[in-house]
Design goal:
- The structure holds two protein chains of two kinds.
- Chain A is mainly beta.
- Helices cover about 5% and strands about 45% of the residues of chain A.
- Chain B is an all-beta fold.
- In chain B, the strands form two sheets. In chain B, strands 1, 3, 4, 8, 9 and 11 form a six-stranded mixed β-sheet that branches. In chain B, strands 2, 5, 6, 7 and 10 form a five-stranded antiparallel β-sheet that branches.
- The chains are: A mainly beta, B mainly beta.
Chain lengths: ~180, ~170
């Protein structure tokens, strides 16, 4: 008996689903000044609601020493509190060090004086992490809202973070005009 | 009060992920208690922990830690014995102090070790319950206890649907 793969796929049915939902990624980034904090935010947009399923992210670990020279010390200086902008609902109990919930986590910053070799007595920075474990984070962010991350930086140098929320966009029939069946 | 055997399905109706973070100073046995907020059940999916492994000036130290999870309201133990923490969460995990620090004051930022694998626990603490986490340094000759351990409980707050606050008729 011949095995026919994908025999039951229907373009009409698949397009009907795709008109209403598709995979999407929302990016949130920020540069947090030294010894300071920043409320990083990204818009969910009015296209539709966003069902987040996974979170990945990376951040730098810079420190300024005498010189002044900025080095990569590999220390987790950033901690964040995730907030659903719709209703200001806190999703964390406290500011959590980023290395405890983000993968790949620390990334080596090429602007550091010791990025690829020693800088005086400071040894070369270690290589950054690889993406290993997207953290499960199932939550529905509503359309027209924002995803907020309140970040604190205990280093005296600015540090950067990038976070990606991976999930599914649920198109809103109100905002998507002219889509038949939406 | 729902039966403990009731299966909890993560839904999108007012449920939310909720990460709980705490840094625990260790001496001997240490407890931390997370009280489930009013109106919710809490499904603990995984525990992520990190503790200082090596201090350059004081030498290589830090033995494995044992952890036990207890649901306090029912005094329900989820394990028959305290488990090595490394069997629940990976010791990345273990992280170094900065070389200039002889010890680890509680305010110290640890090195940004990579997030590794963890075990899905799926422990559900029902409405009104609390999760007590007990961490004990593993005993041994010459064992040195880490000064602190960072713990993150990753889970979901699930509305207790039988309550009137969620629209139930009671």
């Amino acid at each position: 008996m011949a095995i026919r793969t994908f025999a039951n796929l229907s373009a009409a049915k698949l397009f009907a689903i795709q008109r209403k939902q598709y995979t999407d990624v929302i990016h949130l980034s920020g540069v947090i000044p030294g010894n300071s904090g920043l409320l990083c935010r990204t818009a969910v947009s009015n296209v539709g609601h966003f069902l987040c399923l996974r979170v990945t992210g990376s951040f730098s670990t810079l420190m300024e020493i005498a010189g002044p020279t900025v080095i990569d010390d590999g220390i987790d200086h950033l901690r964040g509190l995730l907030i659903d902008g719709a209703g200001q609902r806190k999703l964390f109990s406290d500011y959590i060090p980023l290395s405890l919930w983000l993968s790949p986590g620390r990334r080596r910053d090429s602007t550091a004086a010791n990025a690829y070799g020693p800088s005086g007595a400071i040894p070369a920075a270690n290589a950054g992490g690889s993406l290993f474990y997207p953290v499960e984070f199932e939550y529905l962010f509503t359309a027209n809202s924002e995803i907020l991350l309140d970040v604190r930086n205990d280093s005296n140098a600015a540090n950067r973070l990038d976070i990606a929320f991976h999930g599914v966009r649920l198109l809103s029939g109100v905002s998507v005009l002219g889509v038949k069946g939406a | 009060m729902p039966a403990l055997t009731q299966a909890y399905k993560i839904t999108l109706d007012s449920s939310q992920p909720y990460f709980v973070y705490e840094r625990l100073a260790l001496a001997a046995r240490v407890y931390t208690v997370y009280q489930v907020p009013y109106g919710y059940n809490y499904c603990l999916r995984r525990i992520v922990a990190r503790w200082p492994l090596r201090n350059v000036l004081a030498g290589v130290i830090r033995d494995a830690l044992l952890v036990e999870v207890v649901h306090t309201a029912a005094n329900l133990r989820r394990q028959n014995d305290a488990l090595p923490l490394t069997l629940i969460t990976s010791p990345a995990g273990e992280s170094e102090y900065p070389a200039t620090e002889p010890s680890a004051p509680l305010g110290l930022s640890a090195s940004a070790a990579s997030l590794q694998s963890t075990k899905f626990l799926n422990y559900v603490a029902v409405f009104g319950d609390a999760i007590r986490l007990e961490i004990v340094p593993e005993a041994g000759t010459g064992a040195k206890c880490p000064e602190f351990v960072d713990v993150v409980l990753m889970g979901y707050l699930l509305p207790e649907s039988s309550l009137a606050m969620w629209g139930s008729a009671g």
